[in-house]
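Figure 2 data, in text form.
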Amino acid sequence: MPNDGLVNIGGAGSLTVVGVDPSLNSWGMCRSTVSLSTLEVTVIDLLLVETEKAGRENCSFVVG
């Protein structure tokens, strides 16, 4: 079965999880995997979008 990026249950027994944290001043997303045998969480990607006090037209992206 092809991996569509949402669920990965393969030989290692892991699950891909995406988390979203919206806010008025910033907005974040995280992609991670969870081992189904040990419940260990591994963060793969983080994305943070921040706005300045002047308004939403001043938007910066921070990728870590």
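Caption note: The longest strand covers residues 41-52.
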